[in-house]
Design a protein that fits this description.
Layout lengths: L28 H6 L7 E5 L10 H11 L4 E5 L18 E4 L6 H5 L25 H12 L4 E4 L1 H5 L5 E3 L4 E3 L2 H5 L3 E3 L4 H12 L13 E5 L7 E4 L56 H9 L10 H6 L15 E4 L3 H6 L1 H12 L9 E6 L2 E5 L8 H8 L17 H6 L2 E3 L1 E2 L10 H4 L5 E2 L2 H14 L6 E2 L1 E3 L13 H6 L19 H11 L6 E2 L7 H4 L3 H10 L4 E7 L3 H7 L4 H17 L5 E6 L8 H13 L2 E3 L12 H8 L20 H11 L7 H10 L34 E3 L17
Parallel strand pairs: 1-2, 1-3, 3-4, 4-7, 9-10, 10-11, 13-17, 16-18, 19-20, 21-22
Antiparallel strand pairs: 5-6, 7-8, 8-12, 11-12, 14-15
């Protein structure tokens, strides 16, 4: 990726830098006065408790702005029933920055069954109910009520994933862009350091918030398409039409030696079809034959069903190529709000187009009309360089909750206080996850030296440190320093995933640098153990067996969590996840290296219930796999359609949005009803007597009553134990237990990572 943005720490500091950094950002006027401030330049409002740790978004943004010389205050978990609490720090001289917190407030408050959660990991004492539904909207309204003329900028995960018209699971409607509902002046999406620094300095120089147009990673209103811009209708890129057979996703990708910018190919008979996600400047390679494709698939072949070549060709997104010599001045018009609200197929179409514009190297601006207002979505921000990432993570965080909380326990902090985030982003492209839409698919890395310095800081300053680092990771454990072999190809690519249906031949999968980091970290004096707790991408891990050996030998605490998500091809193809062949290959390595190390260790697999594309028979087969391999789930949750995710568009439209959609395209299985979602969860907990009546009824209806009985080959018993009895299980006792994770949202790996 070519970076042409100014270094985020290169700006001339604001005059208030003379006050120096605060031990902790103030949350009261008394604290401001102790620092010598008469006002805050920027006030950040958040739905989370204020923890001054780099895994908490508001702490990062606050410290980054402080490093620019601004006086930054925090209003944490305010009483939203009036505007009084929003006046506690007085009026900011520049703007309010508003976020719902590290999690979307609706995901934070409600389960996938739309029941209110009994706790909140980001609140002192884990107390629930300390933030409102749709917190960004409520907080922004109260800020406006408190100080009518102060600029309001919204951001964080809640704003990021609701920046365009989006399906909202909790109301079962398509809602407007959150920029309208919140009545804010500007929206920043992604991690947002780069754009918020530019915004703050420009406002400090006297510019109006309404003049800040065209900043990457922001969303704002326009009256009309500016002069000099080329407007392209989204149907010119991906016209909803009939079902077609798609090419394999590698056919149009160039080799590393090919030119990334040849002229566009003409349309018509004989023209090569576009690469995934449409117009790709990465052309020029000779098509690979079916033999090469099958060899690529061999590494991720499923053991439950062979992936056919035709099926593989369908599980990608293709757009119509268009000539575009001036991408920087091109805006794509999405169907307007009323259209996508009333037509699920147009919603699916808009989702497909939006997901095609997520690569900072080639993304174009988007525009979408909401009633009489035009919402303009600028391309994603350029990723931070390693030097910038180091600067962000080495700011003077106290790494502790605000002193005002006393000794109150904040569960999310307890989980991550001794963890170290080493990277951002994910190129996995899982359809149920929104990391790409928020953090991007380009991996942003910290340097090895910076990571080591943070471990040493934890060791030397944390009062509760016992010698154990709980995690070295991020959205994934093992994507640190992995990238496309050719930056030009990376900047031109529109593929939704670098690892599905097989690992792209342009992806560097060498995890040797990560081995070196692990060895250096655990050799530090005072470090007893370093665990890897972030989600492991095991299909990449097996490409470097030495990494698997290092991980298993030194960094597993008896159990290692991995996420096959399912065993069956139908749902896996909608998730864009590898088949169980990758799991089997990794498990063989895991068992081998555990034995060599003289350790008894277990894999803990995570699975998703009720994902789009999943049938009752798919869940039955998964349950049989679990029983056959001796797994019993402890807790399970069903797919939760988070805003903007590809799988959410599938859930809402009933179509497979990984390829062209139309009204007459075949519908895919969508487990919507409460009963079916309960059934799918029950299959994951086949061993729980509470689920046996539901499973017996379902198995009979499915023609599989042969699985009801008391033998080893049966799934569930034919009897129902009395309350209080400890029932014998059908078949042999399971050897292990596992808990499925909260799925369907962007919160992958350790809590506190997303913001």
């Amino acid at each position: 990726m070519i970076h042409n943005a100014p270094h985020i720490f290169s700006h001339k500091k604001y005059w208030a830098h003379r006050f120096g950094p605060a031990g902790e950002l103030p949350m009261s006027q008394d604290a401001m006065h102790r620092l010598g401030w008469d006002a805050c330049d920027i006030i950040l409002v958040t739905g989370d408790a204020y923890v001054d740790h780099p895994s908490f978004g508001m702490a990062v943004i606050g410290r980054v702005l402080e490093a620019q010389g601004f006086r930054v205050g925090i209003i944490s978990q305010p009483d939203w029933h009036s505007a009084d609490d929003f006046r506690r720090l007085g009026q900011p001289t520049l703007f309010f920055g508003v976020t719902g917190g590290n999690m979307d407030s609706m995901v934070n408050r409600y389960t996938s069954d739309k029941k209110i959660r009994s706790n909140d990991a980001y609140t002192p004492g884990g107390e629930a109910g300390k933030r409102p539904d749709r917190a960004v909207n409520v907080y922004a309204h109260r800020c406006r009520e408190a100080y009518k003329n102060v600029a309001i900028i919204i951001g964080g995960i809640e704003a990021s994933l609701r920046r365009i018209a989006h399906y909202d699971y909790w109301s079962d409607t398509v809602r407007k862009s959150i920029l309208l509902d919140s009545k804010a002046d500007l929206l920043v999406y992604g991690n947002a350091e780069r754009q918020i620094v530019e915004i703050a300095h420009r406002l400090a120089k006297g510019e109006s918030i309404h003049d800040l147009k065209g900043i990457r990673g922001t969303v704002h209103f326009v009256k009309q398409v500016p002069q000099g811009w080329i407007e392209k209708d989204s149907t010119d890129i991906d016209k909803p039409g009939g079902v077609i057979l798609h090419q394999n996703p590698y056919q149009d990708m160039p080799s590393c030696n090919s030119s990334p910018h040849p002229s566009p190919l003409p349309e018509g008979e004989g023209a090569k079809k576009p690469s995934p996600f449409g117009e790709s400047e990465a052309r020029g390679a000779k098509p690979q034959g079916e033999g090469m494709l099958l060899r690529t698939l061999a590494a991720t072949a499923t053991t439950t069903a062979a992936i056919s070549l035709a099926a593989t060709r369908e599980q990608v997104i293709h757009f119509k190529p268009i000539a575009n010599q001036n991408r920087a001045q091109t805006v794509i018009r999405l169907p307007d709000y009323d259209a996508v609200k009333n037509d699920p197929v147009l919603y699916a179409h808009a989702s497909r187009v939006m997901h095609g514009e997520t690569n900072p190297g080639n993304a174009r601006a988007l525009i979408q009309r909401h009633d009489k207002r035009e919402v303009w979505i600028n391309p994603p921000p350029l990723p931070l360089t390693t030097q910038e990432m180091d600067g962000v993570f080495e700011l003077p965080y106290s790494r502790l909750p605000h002193s005002g909380y006393g000794k109150a326990n904040i569960p999310a902090f307890e989980m991550i206080q001794h963890s170290v985030l080493i990277m951002r982003g994910c190129f996995g492209g899982c359809s149920f996850c929104s990391i790409t839409e928020h953090e991007g698919r380009i991996i942003q890395n910290r340097s090895e030296d910076s990571i080591i310095r943070e471990i040493e800081a934890i060791r030397d300053t944390s009062p509760s440190f016992t010698g154990h680092i709980s995690d070295l990771g991020g959205p994934t454990a093992n994507m640190w320093r992995l990238a496309c072999k050719d930056p030009a190809i990376e900047a031109a690519c529109r593929k939704p995933s670098c690892v599905y249906p097989g690992i792209c031949h342009n992806l560097d999968t060498d995890q040797t640098p990560l081995i070196k980091l692990y060895r250096r970290a655990r050799a530090l004096p005072g470090i007893k153990k370093i665990f890897i707790a972030s989600g492991l991408r095991y299909d990449i891990a097996v490409e470097t067996p030495a990494y698997v050996k290092e991980l298993v030998t030194h960094h597993v605490g008896g159990y290692l969590k991995i996420a096959p998500e399912h065993t069956e091809l139908g749902p896996l193809s909608k998730m864009m996840k590898p088949g169980m062949g990758s799991y089997d290959r990794f498990k063989a390595m895991f068992d081998k290296y555990s034995k060599e190390a003289g350790k008894e260790q277990y894999l803990i697999p995570y699975f998703i219930a009720a994902h789009p594309g999943t049938t009752d028979h798919d869940m039955l087969n998964l349950a049989l796999w679990l029983k056959r391999h001796g797994f019993r789930a402890d807790q399970v949750q069903a797919f939760l359609p988070s805003p903007m995710a590809i799988a959410t568009a599938m859930y809402h439209s009933g179509k497979d949005t990984l390829h062209k959609v139309s009204r007459n395209a075949p519908d895919i299985a969508i487990p919507r009803s409460v009963k079916q979602r309960r059934l799918h969860k029950a299959f994951l907990r086949y061993h729980d007597p509470k689920n046996w009546p539901l499973l017996r009824e379902a198995l009979k209806q499915m023609g599989r009553a042969d699985l009801i009985g008391n033998g080893k080959h049966h799934l569930i018993p034919s009897f129902q134990p009395r309350i209080g009895d400890t029932p014998p299980q059908a078949g042999k006792p399971a050897k292990q237990a596992f808990a499925t994770k909260h799925t369907g949202d962007t919160f992958r790996g350790s809590k506190g990572r997303r913001r």
